[in-house]
Structure formats: C-alpha cells, structure tokens
C-alpha cells in the first residue's frame, strides 16, 4: 500500500492549536478538514484547544507481537478540562474486512490480507488507547475519552452521504 502524501501546516497560523509542534503533518484531506473544524470550534469557544500527533500511546501490535508507539491524530481539550483523544480514519479501516469463501484472483486475496492487517493493527492501537484513557482518568482526575472520527466514502453506495461520523469508544 502506498504511503499517503504528507501535507504540512504551520501552527503559527492556527489560533486554537496548543501543541508544541511548529508544523502539523497531515496525511489526508480529511485531517485538514478536521483541523479547520477544530479551529472554528476554538474561535467560538466550544473547546479550549487541540494538538496533533503529540499524545503517544505504547502498544503491542497484533500483527507482529512487537511493541510500537501510536501517535494519535488529535488531543482535544474541552472547556471543562476533559480530554478527547481522536483518531481520524476512513470508515472502511474501522470495520473488519469480509472474507470471501473463495478468492477470485491473487489481487483480491492480497487486498483482503492488507485490509485485515490494517484492521488488526488499528484495533491493537485503539485497545491500548482505551486502556491509557482509563488509566489517565483514574490518575489525573480529568475525564479522558477516545473517539474515532470516520469519513464516509462518497464513492461507496453503502455509505449514505459524506461527512463526520463519531464513534465514541466507552472508557
């Protein structure tokens, strides 16, 4: 699978950004859309601020059994001090891929294998993030939650429309 093109945004242009980075690196147009939405939320004082890829969660990946570090997409600070860890993903990467009884081609088998590895890696990261949020809620006295924000694929007829869907993960 090809690596997504990285786009860079200077944080000195962002009013609501409260992270330490001078440059935010985005890997999709969807992440840029989320940054614009977070900026608007800061302008109307709906949230205190946000950071990008600065909250790091250690995890063991289910694909290789090795330790890795997960740099979450966003950490949002609400006005009451609560924190929301946000992952931005295409909807198809948040659901387990369907395995056909028989693969019609080698390409179909490779696509399934790649999708399954992505799903396993993602769920490994998300399980570790849920545990980290639970631990931080208990140790800091702040409420921490984890959410996956997905973009519906407008080319996929099973996804009606296009926009933000929030999958809030209970902590």
Produce the secondary structure layout.
Blueprint: E1 7-10, E2 23-26, H1 29-43, E3 47-52, E4 56-60, E5 67-71, E6 74-78, E7 83-90, H2 106-140, E8 144-151, E9 164-169
Parallel strand pairs: 7-8
Antiparallel strand pairs: 1-2, 3-6, 4-5, 6-7, 8-9
Summarize the structure.
With 171 residues, this protein is of the alpha+beta class. It has helices spanning 29-43, 106-140, and strands at residues 7-10, 23-26, 47-52, 56-60, 67-71, 74-78, 83-90, 144-151, 164-169.
Question: Could you explain how this protein is built, in words?
Answer:
The chain has 171 residues and is of the alpha+beta class. The chain has one domain. The chain is built from two helices and nine strands, in the order E-E-H-E-E-E-E-E-H-E-E. A five-stranded mixed β-sheet has the order 3-6-7-8-9, sandwiched between helices. Strands 1-2 form a two-stranded antiparallel ribbon. Strand 7, helix 2 (106-140) and strand 8 (144-151) form a beta-alpha-beta unit. The chain is globular, with a radius of gyration of 17 Å. The protein starts with 6 loop residues before the first strand and ends with a strand. The model is unreliable at 156-162 (pLDDT under 50).
């Amino acid at each position: 699978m090809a690596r997504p093109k990285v786009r860079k945004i200077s944080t000195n242009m962002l009013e609501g950004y409260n992270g330490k980075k001078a440059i935010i690196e985005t890997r999709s147009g969807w992440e840029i859309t989320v940054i614009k939405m977070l900026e608007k939320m800061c302008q109307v004082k709906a949230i205190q601020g946000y950071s990008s890829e600065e909250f790091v969660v250690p995890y063991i990946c289910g694909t290789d059994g090795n330790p890795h570090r997960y740099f979450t997409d966003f950490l949002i600070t609400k006005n009451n001090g609560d924190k929301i860890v946000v992952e931005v993903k295409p909807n198809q990467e948040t659901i387990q891929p369907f395995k056909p009884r028989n693969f019609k081609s080698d390409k179909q088998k490779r696509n399934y294998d790649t999708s399954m590895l992505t799903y396993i890696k993602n769920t490994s990261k998300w399980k570790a993030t849920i545990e980290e949020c639970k631990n931080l809620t208990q140790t800091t006295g702040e409420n921490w939650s984890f959410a996956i924000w997905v973009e519906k694929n407008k080319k996929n007829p099973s996804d009606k429309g296009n926009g933000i869907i929030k999958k809030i993960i209970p902590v």
